[in-house]
Design a protein that fits this description.
alpha+beta, globular, four-stranded antiparallel β-sheet, NE0471 N-terminal domain-like
């Protein structure tokens, strides 16, 4: 009898466009997992197809055994590993990108101006939460605020 051994995700999962996830696994593999067809076939996930913003709220399950959007909407690490396509990227590459290309501070501009520019579609946040909003550094620098 074969024993199932969990792959266990490493440290992170990032939502991408078109119901794809970028998953960092403990063995060093980084995989892009396309979940579109799975969501179409599985009734519990239909809401993620209807409300794309909800997809962005993906979380790793405790211990890294999969990802979840809700108690009834989970995908195992083994399935993600199996369906994922390897991406030539390491966690350090991603950290390097984030450190050099993402900015979480406003440079020489009021917060109100940033909010207004975002609402008008002049700035495009890559991640927004209650406490902070992240923008690509290149987009901020285009505005000559540095």
């Amino acid at each position: 009898m074969l024993a199932f051994r969990s792959i266990r995700m490493w440290k992170n999962v990032l939502p991408l466009e078109n119901h794809c996830l970028l998953v960092f696994f403990r063995d060093g593999a980084v995989k892009k997992c396309d979940l579109q067809k799975y969501f179409e076939r599985t009734k519990a996930f239909q809401i993620l197809l209807k409300k794309p913003d909800y997809f962005q709220h993906v979380q790793m399950q405790t211990g890294g055994y999969g990802v979840a959007w809700d108690v009834n909407m989970t995908v195992s690490d083994a399935m993600l590993y199996r369906i994922g396509k390897s991406v030539p990227l390491k966690m350090e590459d991603f950290r390097n990108f984030a450190a050099h290309r993402v900015i979480n501070e406003i440079l020489g501009c009021s917060r109100q101006n940033i909010i207004d520019l975002t609402k008008r579609g002049k700035l495009h946040p890559i991640k927004a939460s209650e406490k902070s909003t992240l923008y690509l550094k290149s987009e901020i620098l285009k505005r000559n605020w540095q």
